[in-house]
Amino acid sequence: MNMMRLAFAGAAAGGCALMGMGMARRLVRREEAIAAWSRLLDGLAAQLSYVDDPLPDVLSRLTVSDAPGDARLSLVIDAAVDNMRRDRTLSFSDALDAGRAFADMDASDAATLLPLVRELGATARPQQTARLDSVRASLASVAARAADKTARQKRLYISLGLLGGLALFICLIG
Question: Which pLDDT does position 12 carry in this prediction?
């Protein structure tokens, strides 16, 4: 009976520790997703200012770095490009799977990007570039806030998970 109790207490304590680490990982993934969108928008701005190709062609030329978050975003963008090529009447917002595109972001982060997402492929190029510049500036401040939040709260979540797990372990074996 004591071994079973000890095993249960250890499993429960490990679960608490994993919850804390999961919350910390969520903060890091949010920061990575914002950085991936920032890199995508930087590349898009460079392409839109020099090239007058259709949006699917411009998006498909954007390179993906090895940075965390870029591969996930690339899959979503590639799917949107495929949708836009299959149905030329689709705008970027209609072709994009927003649930996957903003999965690692907070609602406020996604709200920063939505005006641009709605205009890409649906408005004239000058409007798109103006909105792109505006969203890039807003996203820079969102990225700074996300980095600050991650720096402040990452260790807190890990520590609380470990301490909660230790406290639970002591309560269950005591």
Answer: 87
Q: What is the pLDDT of residue 31?
A: 94
**What is the mean predicted confidence (pLDDT) over 81-93?**
89
Phi/psi of residue 68, nearest 5 degrees: -60, 140
Contact 159, 20 (CB under 8 A): yes
Three-class secondary structure of residue 163 per DSSP: helix
Rounded Cα–Cα distance for residues 119 and 140 (Å): 20
| DSSP assignment of 74-116 | HHHHHHHHHHHHH-TT--HHHHS-HHHHTTTS-HHHHHHHHHH
Ordered by start, the domain boundaries in the chain are 2-173
Residue 13, judged by CB atoms within 10 A of its CB (0-12, 13-18, 19+), counts as buried
Residue 52, helix vs strand vs coil: coil
pLDDT (0 to 100) of residue 1: 58
* Phi, psi values for residue 102, rounded to 5°: -115, 20
